[in-house]
Amino acid sequence: MSDPERPHRKRKIALSAAIYALCYLFLLTIIFVMIIINDPAGWTTYLVEQFSDVLFLVISVFFLVVIVFFYYFFEDRETLVSMNNTLLIFSLFSVSAIICYLFGRYISPYSRPLALFALLSLFLLNRRQTIFLNFIYTFFIFIIDVYTNAYATTELVQEVYSTLMLGFVSGTLAVFFAGSVKTRAGLVFTGVVLALPTSLVVALLNLSSITNDWGLYLANIGYRMLGSVISSVLALALMPVFEWVFNRLTLFRLRELTSTNAPLLARLKTEAPGTFNHSLIVAQLSEACAVAIGENAELARAAAYYHDVGKLKQPECFTENQTGYNVHNELTPELSADIIRSHAKDGYELLLSNHLPKPIADVALQHHGTLPMKYFYEKAMRISGGEANIKDYSYVGPVPQTRIASIVMIADASEAATRALRDHSPESVEKTVRTIIEERMDLGQFAECDITMHDLTVIKQTLVDALSGVHHHRVEYPTIRFNRDSLREDKRE
């Protein structure tokens, strides 16, 4: 049986191969410019006399690019066919290589920020990709060192060949040291930590030069420490640029987006305070659920903060923002359903127009899936005498495509449903949450994401524990009213 999507996938892969080819040519252009800068007067002679070396360099870089292509072809085709991801990867290669070249040429080969690529890649891509790409990047820098005229007029043979070990050590340790970093200050401190093992490598590589030149020996160690610290400082400075240009989500950007002073959240707090307060609770619940099933807790919290921003278009039409008057009492159920249904798409468009990352906008679009709006459907059935079409009173979807979208869908409905309960005992909350999850399963809302039954069980229990605490029983306060005189100490003996 033929696959109708197969030709489409082939076209995407062919387009990706063409983009990789262009990126390969761009990398060669960068290397060519480096050769010219190294010897402005004699670079043509160098190309002729060292033609075999230059040819080997061109072929080596080609194979490095091909290896990256096949890595994504077999391991992650979604990244392969994404032009944005491909351009990000080769932009990281190019920018990091240029910076390393400048430091190596004008300061010292040991001062090069070799961990810069790994630090940027770690936060802009992921750990697994970074470990692989760091090996490719290290070989790329090594090939430039050996097969260009970068050090043709010097005797820095040891420095050139130390690139391999320093690149592997710096990049790989950066991945593990920075993997748990949560703040920008922590990223800078990672550079300080990296300085210790990489300086030890330089110290061991230069043992033979101790007796000849103590000053040079110590200077090389100092340059390596400088390079490690500069790696983290430059990563900190360049990361916002890559975040903005490629619209990437990093831990740091997620934390900025979840500040209540962020523009859209500030609007939500002012124009739709009920929705804002609801979103805060849903964010706490979503974060707890994400932690429980091993998902990205920061992304879950951010997505929950913004899942209802579409209500900013008509905040007064949503119950949590109403103060007694319900506009839907004067509208037909068809019109009411259209207004309520539109907030998912409105939120999606508002988030994208404000340049928020697409994963957050996708959750705003998907968090109601294709669920029916029971209240307006039931109202239409009464008015029409049972002739209403359920599709006219349902959200248009799509259903959740990720586990985080599913988490927000469940947390959103559970928070609203349990808030309306009179009995907030754990048993009552458990029954409510279980009903919500089972109903969405019956309606196929989780059919297009990789959430499992075990995940749903864990999510249910997490929500029950959290919501039982949020809506816990409070002691009824006495109606006694105090004033200043009643609180004044009795000074009579």
Characterization of the model:
This protein is an all-alpha fold and 493 residues long. The protein folds into two domains: 242 residues, Arp2/3 complex 21 kDa subunit ARPC3; 218 residues, Hypothetical protein af1432, CATH 1.10.3210. Helices cover 70% and strands 0% of the residues. The chain has 21 helices and no strands. The chain is elongated. 37% of the residues are buried. The model has no long low-confidence stretch (mean pLDDT 89).
Blueprint of the fold:
Elements: H1 6-38, H2 43-49, H3 51-75, H4 77-80, H5 83-106, H6 116-124, H7 127-147, H8 157-177, H9 184-205, H10 214-246, H11 251-257, H12 263-271, H13 273-293, H14 297-306, H15 333-353, H16 358-366, H17 374-384, H18 403-419, H19 426-442, H20 453-470, H21 484-487
Helix pairs in contact: 1-3, 1-5, 3-7, 5-6, 6-7, 6-8, 6-10, 7-8, 8-9, 9-10, 12-13, 13-14, 13-18, 13-20, 14-16, 14-18, 15-16, 15-17, 16-18, 18-19, 19-20
Give the integer mean of the pLDDT values: 89
Beta strand count: 0
Tell me the number of structural domains: 2
Structural class: mainly alpha
CA distance, first residue to last residue: 101 Å
Which spans have pLDDT < 50 for at least 5 consecutive residues? none
Number of helical stretches of at least 4 residues: 21
* Shape assignment: elongated
| Binned strand content | under 5%
- Strand/helix succession: HHHHHHHHHHHHHHHHHHHHH
Q: What is the CATH C-level name of the largest domain?
A: Mainly Alpha
CATH architecture term of the largest domain: Orthogonal Bundle
Would you give the CATH topology of the largest domain?
Arp2/3 complex 21 kDa subunit ARPC3
Evaluate the radius of gyration.
30 Å
Question: What is the helix content?
Answer: 55-70%
**Largest sheet: number of strands, sense, barrel closure:** none
